[in-house]
Write a structure and sequence with these properties.
The chain is 33% helix and 22% strand. With 171 residues, it is of the alpha/beta class. The protein folds into two domains: 30 residues, no CATH class; 109 residues, Dihydrodipicolinate Reductase, domain 2. It has a four-stranded mixed beta sheet with strand order 3-6-5-4, covered by helices on one side. It has a two-stranded parallel sheet with strand order 1-2. A hairpin with a 4-residue loop joins strand 5 and strand 6.
Length: 171
């Protein structure tokens, strides 16, 4: 491991798949006296910094509740049960599309609403035949600040254009 060699450790997101793995990584880096970085670069993007500024300054009022969602249709190659792509094979990728994409959203919420998430709960489901990774995830969470939220990630929806068109028609 890099830490044992005295090298700084830079890992992709998610840092790990569970709390115990995170604690093990933190301990290894502390023992070796090297920093541990997780690749959450989006915190530094201008649009995300602007959102944090608006929340921190109170310009949008007191935030009490957030709702996040990500819906997309399954990619054609994900439906091939003979050899699905590596991103949706947990033994190779560590998880599915949720594990690949949702950490960015969850990290951003942690950035905007600092403090430990006091309560969280998730429900996972595998809807697509032949898939090993969850393709529908719902969750609830509450931050130390009192901000509560819900999230929904579904990778088995109709086409993106249908969802986009429906949103435009509702405006």
């Amino acid at each position: 491991m890099s830490a044992e060699a005295g090298k700084p450790v830079y890992v992709e997101k998610p840092m790990a798949l569970n709390f115990a793995e995170c604690q093990e990584m933190i301990a290894a880096c502390q023992i070796a006296g090297v920093p541990l970085f997780v690749a959450y670069y989006r915190r530094a993007l201008p649009r995300f910094l602007k959102i944090k500024e608006l929340v921190d300054s109170g310009a949008i009022g007191e935030v009490r509740f957030v709702s996040v969602s990500l819906y997309q249709p399954p990619a054609k190659e994900n439906l091939n049960s003979v050899s699905p792509p590596w991103r949706v094979v947990p033994d190779i990728s560590g998880g599915g599309l949720f594990v690949d994409l949702a950490p960015h959203t969850l990290d951003f919420l942690d950035f905007v609403f600092p403090g430990q998430s006091l309560r969280s709960r998730a429900t996972l489901r595998i809807k697509t035949d032949g898939m090993e990774a969850e393709d529908i995830v719902t969750g609830t969470f509450q931050f130390e600040s009192g901000v509560q939220g819900v999230g929904a990630w579904c990778f088995t929806t109709a086409s993106k254009s249908d969802l986009t068109r429906n949103r435009r028609e509702q405006r």
